[in-house]
Amino acid sequence: MVYLELYKAIDWALSMENFLQILIFLTGFIIIAVASNQISKLFLRIKLPLVTGLLFMGIIAGPYVLDLIPREAIANLDFVNDFALAFIAFTVGAELYLRELRNRFRSITGMTLGQLIVTFILGSLAVYFIAEYIPFMQGMNTKSKVAVSLLAGTIFVARSPASIIAVVHEMRAKGPFTQTAIGVTVLTDFLVIILFTVILSIGEGLINGTSFNLIFIFLLIFDLLFAFILGYGLSKLIGFIIFLKTKAIVKTILILLAGYGIFTLSHYLREWSLLYFNYEIFIEPLLICIIASFIITNYSKHQDEFLKILHDSRTAVYVIFFTLIGASISLGILATVWSIAIALFVIRLVALVIAGFVGGSLGGDPARLNRIAWMPYVTQAGVSLGLTAAVAGEFIGWGTDFATIIVAVIVLNQIVGPPIFKWAINLAGEGHGRAVAPELVSMRSALIFGLESQSLALARQLQEHHWDVKMATLKSDIGDMKTSGINIHRISDLSVECMQELDASKAETIVTMLSDDENFQICELAFEHFGTKEIVVRLHDRNNFDRFHELGALIVEPSTAIVSLLDHFVRSPQATSLLLGMEENQDTVTLEVQNPNLHKMALRNLHLPHDIIILSVTRKGQMIISHGYTRLRKKDIVTLVGSSESLENVRLRFEE
Fold it and tell me: Which partner for 124 in 46, 149, 177, 330 could form a disulfide, CB atoms 3.0-4.6 Å apart?
């Protein structure tokens, strides 16, 4: 009895020590992850994906470089991967929104089948035939080589919905090619997890020497059906969590715990079934989570709040997951297999090209699109890394070596993929990104759309400040309006041709004072075809604010503008009067630094007139905190306030 109590005490002490050790590792890792998130943003400046930066930071902090995350920590933080993988599965299921796939159902299903089948077969065959060149596969028997090849081929099929959607938003792409690309990417990631579930079971059977008979097939079908049942149950649990009257952060934690619980259940169910039935009941937790998310997204009233929770928490989860994956990469192995990674990268590209032609033909797409049909699907990220991590955790030994090679291929795909997709969008003629603004001889030209008392008053005021002003109107009769001295053009419609006739490319600012729909049409034309530096919109309906804001327009809502102006007059009457040019002989102007002699000159050395004050300096669209030691750069935008005479002198100095 005494020995039993002593054993329990020792076991409890060891458990507490292990818990404290994990807590220390977790705390240290979170601190590193926060730093990784900040530093990895530097990769965006050199046009590399954030995921690449996170993986790189994980490698640097990992056991093979700085050893800030030791091997022991990686082994003890396996549960972090389970949390993240559950979340990734939730995001994939949430992207599969059926209503958005109906319009191009044939094209999407045809391309999905082509990409899924061709990429899987060619990728698997390629890995099998180059097995002798892959170090960890050299000593394997044929069945094990087939298993590894099938797993690699499955991961090659996976895509990156997040990267695809990010490029679409950046390019403001719209059209059949873009719709198909999004639909195929999302549907493929859904199907690849089902495929992975089947292939993982088959792979374990091949490696463990399990015979393939009717019982094996029956049990495999049972595993899939059981996963669907659990997925439905998990969707109800998540719905209940969202229904709770509590804070969003609490709901997020409970949903992540529910996902982690599925991974834990899967682990214990395998051990229990092996102990009592001498057979492993394997239910793929990724599949369960993706089914639950799919049901909530398409058949639940909690869809909006669920999507918001995923959106708000995805950055934190991705930072933790990708940093830990980077730390797990073995640089020693990578140094010996980099050539294999490049070969697999090229093989996958070839498979995608062939799959694009096959899928396009099945979907009935035109030949010109079939030639570029492969280009949206190069990118890989979350799901691919998630499946790779699952393989590494499932097959202790060669799993880590497998993951190192596959992660290297994924990184190459993530670097090359987005630029290729951007190119494809432009080739398809569906890109609506901002045009490059031409070099303007003068920054003091404005084009005003709309003829009314306010627009005429604005035109006259701009002319008083020596602006070159043009006005455009759709009206055929201007009535009794006093328009003398103002350059007015009548236009037949709002089109690129009409704006070209108005020399819109030479306008530094375009002001729209028509209806919201007409204003938006002008803004789109100016954004896509002329790259106009400033677009000012008079808004009628507050509900239209976001779509103008996405185009970078400066929005004036008359009702709130008046309130804001009165507020500033009450709190700071002198400054407001000065900025609005209401003080006698005072004005505020914005100038572009064009004089090369001012390049790299500190503000304190400009020798400005004594009544000139620099309010702000904007560089490449970002306002910088300026002081006397701030050095100007050519094309900086400088806002100044002072007397009209002094401002004119400064203008002459800033110009070439």
Answer: 149
